Amino acid sequence: MSSTATTTSTTAPARSRPAPAAGRNRPGAARARHRRLVATLFLGPAVVYLLLFYGYPVVQNVVMGFQHYTISTFFTGEAPWVGLDNYREVLGSPLFRTALLNTFLFTVGSIVGQFALGLGIALFFRRRFPLSGLLRSLILLPWLIPLIAASAVWKWLLDTESGAINRVLVGTGLVDTGVPWLSSTSLALGTVIAVNVWIGIPFNAVILHGGLQGIPDELYEAGALDGATRGRAFRHITWPMLRPVVTVVLVLGVVYTLKVLDIILGLTGGGPANATQTLATQSYQLSFTTFDFGQGAAVSNILIVISLVFAAVYLRLNRRAVDE
Amino acid sequence: MGGASRDPAWYDRPVSRRAVTTAGLLAPLAALLAGCGSSASAGPRTLRVLDTYTNEPDRSFIGKRLEEAARRAGVSLERVSVSGDSLIQRVLQQGSSGTLPDILMLDNPNLQQIAATTALRPFDELGIPTEGYADGVLAAGTHGGRVYGLAPNVNTIALFYDVRALDEAGVEPPTTWDELRAAAGELTQGSRYGLAFCGNATYEGTWQYLPFFWSNGADEREITSPEAAAALGLLADVVGAGHASSSVLNWSQADVKDQFVAGRAAMMVNGPWQIPELETIEGLEYGVVPLPVRDPRTQEPVAPLGGEVWTVPATGDRAKERLAAAVLTDFLSDDSQLTLGEQRFTVPGKPALAGEYLRRRPEMETFVDLIENARARTGLLGDEWPTTATALYTGLQLALSGQASPAEALQEAGEYV
Amino acid sequence: MNTVRRPWLHTAAGIVVIAVLLFPIYWMVNASLQPNGATVDTTWLPLHPDLTGYRTALAEQGGNLVTSLVVALGSVALSLLIAVPAAYALAQFRLRWAGWVLFGILISQMIPGIVIANALYGAYADLGLLNSIPGLILADSTAGIPFAILICRAFMQSLPPAVVEAALVDGAGPVRAFVSVVLPISRNALITAGLFTFLFTWSDFLFALTLTTTEDVRPVTLGIYNYLGAYVNDWSAVMATAVLASVPAIVLLVVAQKYVAAGATGGAVK
Predict the structure, then answer these.
(1) Do B246 and A6 touch (CB under 8 A)?
(2) Strand bridging mode B46-51 / B76-81
(3) What residue in C sits closest to A219 (Cα-Cα)?
(4) Which of A227, A267, B401, C3 has the fewest CB atoms within 10 Å, measured from its CB?
(5) What range does the domain containing A162 cover?
(6) Chain B neighbors of A155, CB-CB under 8 A
(7) Could you tell me which CATH class the domain C60-269 is placed in?
């Protein structure tokens, strides 16, 4: 798989084609060695780091999925091989279906919300106006708060009787009694998605903003000369130039959202009645509440496989962009 | 298009010597940094302790008592406290890397599982006295007939009530389930609910369900029994009638206390660890009674046993294990139990000390009575308890959220066991 | 970037948007000033501010804040050092196996943190890296490096080759050209990647918890747990710590955002 990077399609004024560098086509082992040396210099440290810090955990997790791994294993080292038993039990449990559905809803809801709002904010802050710099830097504040504090604050805000949100809603007469945001099985998942969107907006907004900054003004000027209005400018200039950044943000967003654990545990613990139980929380609970690490690893491996599908999609999209 | 303009040029150019030397220097630097870690070994007369008393004032109370015990045994201590949620994780990590501490505190329902892994040294081998403890304490600390851990102090839960609220409504503290239903109803006024308890999706929810479960005669080996369903029905009825907030599905015991203190609940199910804070609230007069039973003629309140046990991991260092045993013997002594009990509002693990204890802390009378017959959660199921505990709070959540009738909820939850 | 018509309208709208977005942050500050950490029926404004939480936090968490800062900055330095050249190589070199590296990086992002933390514990215990700042820096970079590679690569994909060619024509080697030409142009990407690496590390709790066994090295995310006991929670201290922990990070953020200049590539092409 080669990932030749090229400039994305552009309607910019003609770029000068640089003259071919001298000696480009000289064959020889020296050439190949130079190539490898430079590539090693640039990529080597990263590859080594990734293999060291990710390689072993991944392998261990995959193997654990096939073992009967319990608390005793930590002390005695014995983990009998059980083949696909863990997977069979996990997939056959009714909780898995619920968790899978919740994971899907949670991910789609979070990504759509985060991306749309993040893009909106990024577009809004693209132009300069008084205080725009300060306000832009404030966007990242939600990320500075330790998750334990953030989830506690949200729990208070969302409390059915005394939470600030319900106090406003009841006070203004929009509802009669407090809405059970976190304690109703029908509302809890939506509420958790909303909180996750809140957490994800800074990520999307800042990266998309950076991407927008990378689009040269000349393109818009040229487009304006051709009569491109705001909407058409967005479709024909902004969106295509933003594509690589958008794809990265979306794919990373999905991969990160699939892993989300702390905020769900902090807000609802997977409840009420498993209404907010996702594959990630289920894996955690299997491992650390009922101490069946083999099953926990099985669920997290399933989660990784789902992420792999998205990674494959990203790479396909990436290659298609390259070919354009 | 393609690479015509860029790539080959790069590879053709010789890499500058400066670049190579810089890279070469960084590698050993990285290796050097790798060596800059602190070692974890302690001296021969220093014992490592692991517990979960991360915040004050417990941290200091336990700390001082441990220091005293250590001094008497002629050792010094290196103590680490981690949050309750992460204790087991830490124990597992240390277990697999062979770095368990010399003295380990565990929450009592976890003891059986850890003991089953042979990671702990039995008390009879260490010579730590085990007589005189309440049945529940021994049941929690015994695995395979041998005692692996004991708790100097224990606690349980009971019904706290707002004296003034009950007086105003002309309601007596309830002693039966029916009275509880009625009282909760009458006390629900305005923004105040009659009852608050913890029914969240953690072992805290299970913990608060157990007194009703057990006092009605249900058995944790068979959670789909009618007795269990009836107990669950009581709680579901109170929530369903609007006499307890639906937020009980999310509250921890600490949140429940906050509600009670803020006047949003007239009664709450909670434990004596809340008493120090309740005492500081001006204008709050509270009373404590045992949790109601369905039929007081044939049933007695059954309290679940709470509290932390102290153990000696089998580190293999016999000398240190003996020193640890000496420290623990002092830490578990009668004097220690009384001191800690008085400071921390927890009941001594030996019922014989009850008289002296009540002299010092008369307000703990209800709890002292309950502890005598308190039941350990792992008493019958041993290391199989976590699965049942999870099923119980699952059923609790299903019923309280109205998703299923109590009987159905327990049926469904029972499938997870 | 040109300024807008009716700028003050935009400012007002911007303030509203940010205010709504940051309301929970305000609530956190509010809670930190409430007496006894009153969490039920908290008043809208802290009319009787109680600074006990801050006193506790300042007295006990000062050192932890410094630790967090050192670890976070170290992690940014390490991550950028390793990730940016790699990102450039993946974006601009034509390498047959680059796709696999990319795939591997993506996979690495899918691994639950707890799996990595547990595996690292064993390795760190053997290597003596527990309770060390370099150890934490290395571990926290697991979040920063893959992410920085992906983000920087996305930005660098649209680098105009003409700029780099100019440097090469002038006789610079690949490394020189990289340092003096590519890096300045990619400033936006670097700062964005650096920012997020900083934030990932600053808010990391898992590695802080797993890879420290004593109180010697204790990032502030872990220090907060001193106030959350099994039975009693001191919320005003928790919130005060969280607020104090945000301050240095906010300062860094504001400073960094100033450097995200507009049209970084636009000017260079000309």
Answers:
(1) no
(2) parallel
(3) C266
(4) A227
(5) 87-323
(6) 250
(7) mainly alpha
Residue B353: which of B339, B338, B366, B372 has the closest Cα?
Answer: B338
Interchain proximity B55–C215, CB inside 8 Å:
no
Which CATH number characterizes residue A285's domain?
1.10.3720.10
Structure tokens at B178: 């029916």
CA distance C221 to chain A (A): 6
Q: What letter represents residue A258's amino acid?
A: L
C132 Cα to chain A: minimum distance (Å): 17
Cβ of A270 under 8 Å from any chain B Cβ?
Answer: yes
Q: Are A211 and C157 in contact (CB under 8 A)?
A: no
Two tokens at A281? 């929380």
Q: pLDDT category, B43, cuts 50, 70, 90?
A: confident
pTM score above 0.95:
no
Q: Is B159 helix (H, G, I), strand (E, B) or coil?
A: strand
* Prior bond of A240 cis (ω within 30°): no
Nearest chain C CA: its distance from A190 CA (Å)? 18
Q: Is A10 on the interface with B (CB under 8 A)?
A: no
Task: Answer whether A140's CB lies under 8 Å from A203's CB.
Answer: no
Q: Are B246 and B407 in contact (CB under 8 A)?
A: no
> Is the distance from CB of A160 to CB of A183 less than 8 angstroms?
yes
CA angle A271, B197, C235 (to 5 degrees): 80
CA gap B155, B144 in Å, rounded: 25
Give, for A254, the enclosing helix (H) or strand (E): helix A239-259
C-alpha distance from residue C43 to each of A76, A135, C27, C40, C269 (Å): 54, 26, 10, 9, 56
| CA B228 – CA B405 distance, rounded (Å) | 12
User: What's phi and psi for C59, nearest 5 deg?
Assistant: -65, -35
Give how many domains chain B has, as a whole number: 2
What amino acid is encoded at A120 in this protein? G
- Evaluated on CA atoms A189, A193, A199, A200, the torsion sign reads positive
* Element (DSSP H or E) covering residue B279: helix B275-280
Tell me which DSSP letter residue C224 carries.
G
Instruction: Domain of residue B297: give its range.
Output: 158-302+381-414
Taking an 8 Å cut-off on Cβ atoms, the answer to whether C232 and B273 are in contact is yes
Q: Do B246 and A274 touch (CB under 8 A)?
A: no
pLDDT of residue B256: 93
* pLDDT, tens digit (0-9, with 9 covering 90-100), for C31-73: 888 876 567 778 888 888 888 888 888 888 888 989 999 999 9
Which of B51-55, B183-187, B252-256, C35-39 bottoms out in mean pLDDT, i.e. has the lowest? C35-39
Within 8 A of A74 by CB-CB distance, chain B residues are: 92-93, 95-96, 117
In a domain, B4, yes or no: no
Task: Tell me the nearest-neighbour CA distance from A225 into chain C, angstroms.
Answer: 16
d(CA C11, CA C17): 10
d(CA C228, CA C236): 11
C217 phi, psi to nearest 5 deg: -115, 110
Of B76, B85, B61, nearest in space to B338 by CA? B61
Q: Which residues of A touch B262 (CB under 8 A)?
A: 162
- Residues of chain B with Cβ-Cβ distance to A319 below 8 Å are none
User: Domain map of chain C by residue range?
Assistant: 1-50, 60-269
- What pLDDT was estimated at residue B288? 95
Strand (E) positions, chain A? none
C172 — contact with chain A (CB < 8 Å)? Answer: no
Q: B336 and B264, same structural domain?
A: no
